[in-house]
From TrEMBL:
Catalyzes a trans-dehydration via an enolate intermediate. Pathway: Metabolic intermediate biosynthesis; chorismate biosynthesis; chorismate from D-erythrose 4-phosphate and phosphoenolpyruvate: step 3/7. Its EC number is 4.2.1.10. The record marks R17 as: Transition state stabilizer. The active site is at Y22 (proton acceptor), H99 (proton donor). It holds the Pfam family DHquinase_II. InterPro entries: DHquinase_II (IPR001874), DHquinase_II_sf (IPR036441). One of its GO terms (molecular function) is 3-dehydroquinate dehydratase activity. Belongs to the type-II 3-dehydroquinase family. This is 3-dehydroquinate dehydratase. GO terms for biological process: amino acid biosynthetic process; aromatic amino acid family biosynthetic process; chorismate biosynthetic process; quinate catabolic process. Keywords: Amino-acid biosynthesis, Aromatic amino acid biosynthesis, Lyase. Homododecamer.
Length: 146
């Protein structure tokens, strides 16, 4: 079982960017935690973060036929990343969308998530721990829990 973990714009700044909203855990901390969990449940994770939508799409498309699911935090693309949304929708595997903050309880413009309608699994507002939930829920949907 191989799962892609795709991180959007500004997530490389986790831990320092708006810690009152996004917390103090860094992206390397999240990656390390997910890798430990993946090892425990015998799932391979491949990780990628970019501040550029096209690079995210290129990476996702390069994995065609190799992955069984995707965990994605679209971050700064949440409201308008239609190209990434289409690429996720067309990858042919279940997709878990994760947001660190509850985007639906923030500013009005943040409340429209173009990724919500394509998500097999959707988590918002659980902070960094939401990644664990998203991965486990995605695996459950795939039928691969161990």
């Amino acid at each position: 079982m191989k799962i892609a973990v795709l991180q959007g714009p500004n997530l490389n700044r986790l831990g320092t960017r708006k810690p009152e909203v996004y917390g103090t855990v860094t992206l390397p901390d999240i990656v390390a935690d997910l890798d430990v969990l993946a090892g425990e449940i015998e799932v391979e994770l491949v990780h990628f973060q970019s501040n550029h939508e096209g690079a995210m799409i290129d990476w996702l498309q390069s994995l065609e036929g190799e992955i069984d699911g995707v965990v994605c935090n679209p971050a700064g693309l949440t409201n308008y990343g239609l190209s990434l949304r289409d690429a996720l929708n067309e990858c042919g595997v279940p997709v878990a969308i994760i947001h660190l903050s509850n985007v639906h309880a923030r500013e009005e413009w943040r409340r429209h998530d173009v990724f919500a309608e394509i998500a097999t699994v959707y988590f918002a507002g659980a902070g960094w721990f939401g990644y664990r939930h998203a991965l486990q829920a995605l695996l459950s949907k795939i039928g691969a829990t161990r």
